[in-house]
Amino acid sequence: MTTVAELPAGFADKVLSAQSTFRSVMDAMARPGSVQRVTAAVGAPAGTMRGAAAIALTLFDHDTPIWLDAAMSATPDVAKWLKFHTSAPVVADSSIASFALVGDAKNLPALDRFAFGSNEYPDRSTTLILQAESLTQGPTFEMRGPGIDGTALLQAMLQPRDLFQRLTINEALFPRGIDVVLVHDDLIVAIPRTTRLVASGA
């Protein structure tokens, strides 16, 4: 059984690392489809990529309920690490989660299992943090929407393969909806609820 002292460290420099990670996340959200790098040195529990760990340390706190998928829940160290470093409550009910940390995205639950927010409080929705096989190789996805000049091209190995098809639900829900942050190692890509798939191909 892992003790607190044996858990991986968080940020080497809490303030500067959180600031730089926050900028990377904001840049990713402002420029959907663009690949951003998380440069902060961070310890991470097994099964959690560095980018996902850095985002957790930056955005999670005692007011942000977190849902973990089966892959993230397979070892209790992930929940222990999150609670120790962020104080964020880990919840079993995905519909009340502020963030969902997904290690096995191919088994992502249906999006209606998560919170869409309300028209009055659209920010009270779940942001999905999905670990991806690659954000630089694989099929090409062409996207458009706010923050994109014309179209943006993303080459990535994504799971679930129908992720963008699932996200079309955002069109009917707006201003409510689901935001997604894709992570591979220390690279991140944001797909805000306003981003639409134009085309995809090999």
Characterization of this structure:
- This protein is an alpha/beta fold and 202 residues long.
- It has helices spanning 14-30, 50-59, 70-73, 76-86, 163-167, 169-173, and strands at 36-37, 66-68, 99-102, 127-131, 140-144, 152-155, 179-184, 187-191, 196-201.
- The strands form two sheets. A six-stranded mixed β-sheet has the order 1-8-7-4-3-2. A three-stranded antiparallel β-sheet has the order 6-5-9.
- The model has no long low-confidence stretch (mean pLDDT 94).
Taken as a percent bin, the fraction of beta residues is 15-25%
Strand order of the largest sheet: 1-8-7-4-3-2
User: How much helical structure, as a percent, in the residues?
Assistant: 25-40%
Largest sheet geometry: 6 strands, mixed
**Number of distinct beta strands:** 9
Q: What is the terminal separation in angstroms? A: 45 Å
H/E element order: HEHEHHEEEEHHEEE
